[in-house]
Amino acid sequence: MSDTRAPALAWAGLLLASACWAGNALVARAFHDDIPPIALTFWRWSLALAILLPFVARPLWQHRAAVRHAGWRLVLVAALGISTYSVLLYCAARTTVAINLTLLNTCLPLATFIGAGLLLGEWPTRRAWLGMAVAILGLLVLIGRGSLASLASLSFNPGDLIMLLAVLDWALYTLLQRRWAAWFQGIPPLAFLGALALCGVPLLLSFYLLELASGAHFEPSLRNLAAIGYTGTFASLIAYLLWNHGIAVLGVAKASLTNYLMPVFTAILGFLILGEALQGYHWVGGGMIFAGLLLGTRQRGR
Predict the structure, then answer these.
(1) Domain boundaries, the chain
(2) Which residue windows are transmembrane per the record (predicted)?
(3) What's the distance, Cα to Cα, between the start and end of the chain in Å?
């Protein structure tokens, strides 16, 4: 693949990942009364692991020395990105709406901008900061529904605070993956995701058993199984592969800017799936977010 095509494909992958995660937020909210949060996380990643194993068992064995070399770093990254983040997201969905989940997730670029500078020495350019500022203005248009009065009356609940913890968790997952890239270098991307799932699912099992012991369970209906199927394939396998590839090619700060598009995708999916009308402020806010993304990621010259 040529050097000119690689960034474009990485951007396209990040856009698709954001769309998959916007759908995940809708699923989290729609099924918060039907599937307990740890159960949804455990079965989501168990399904992803079951799909991955036939494809990654051989590569993992062939690269077992690299996996051992990664050691505890691999386990920590899996605990952050596979186990903790998903549980926090689904717990947050019990007391807040889907659009709030994606709106709060847009705090990630700021967290990763600062973290990339402190941990990686990758301080973004002034153009990137300006792009982020434009995207934030577009986000405020979405949050306030085009009205300053609505923005001033905005209130938060416990689920919103849990989602902020999830954002910080995901930022650390992303930054550590970039910081320890040399430790993970010998593991192919698909095998790397398989290794993360192999570490993350056992970590989830003990908490899932505790949740079952507390009496929390779900009915294995077709509707519930379809929700697990979506989260296990699109929100786990596809989105995580594309995200990991994006931060490897573009860096943490640039890749995280695509999180501003999640509320836009949530609004579009809400229109397509739930029949929720798209208002003028959706177009204005979404356009500003796209403009900020283009401004913040555009290179000077060729």
Answers:
(1) 4-297
(2) 42-61, 73-93, 99-121, 128-149, 161-178, 190-210, 222-243, 255-274, 280-297
(3) 18
Identity of residue 292: G
Residue with tokens 């847009």: 106
H helical segments located in 181-279 = 181-184, 189-213, 222-232, 239-250, 252-256, 262-273
Task: Compute the distance between CA of residue 209 and CA of residue 188 in angstroms, rounded to an integer.
Answer: 32
SS3 state of residue 232? helix
For residue 174, what is the enclosing H or E element? Answer: helix 158-179
- CB of 94 closer than 8 Å to CB of 32: yes
For the beta carbon of residue 112, count every other beta carbon within 10 angstroms. Answer: 30
Q: pLDDT value at position 34? A: 93
Which residue do the tokens 């954002």 mark?
Answer: 167
Distance CA 284, CA 302 (A): 29
- Average pLDDT of span 213-229: 93
Is 79 a residue whose pLDDT tops 80? yes
Confidence of residue 251 (pLDDT cuts 50, 70, 90): confident
Split at pLDDT 50, 70, 90, the class of 150 is: low
Angle (CA) 33 89 128, round 5°: 145
CB-based burial of residue 22 (10 Å sphere; 0-12 exposed, 13-18 middle, 19+ buried)?
Answer: buried
Compute the distance between CA of residue 290 and CA of residue 12 in angstroms, rounded to an integer: 13
Q: How confident is the model at residue 301 (pLDDT cuts 50, 70, 90)?
A: very low
* Radius of gyration in angstroms for the set of CA atoms belonging to the chain, rounded to a whole number: 19
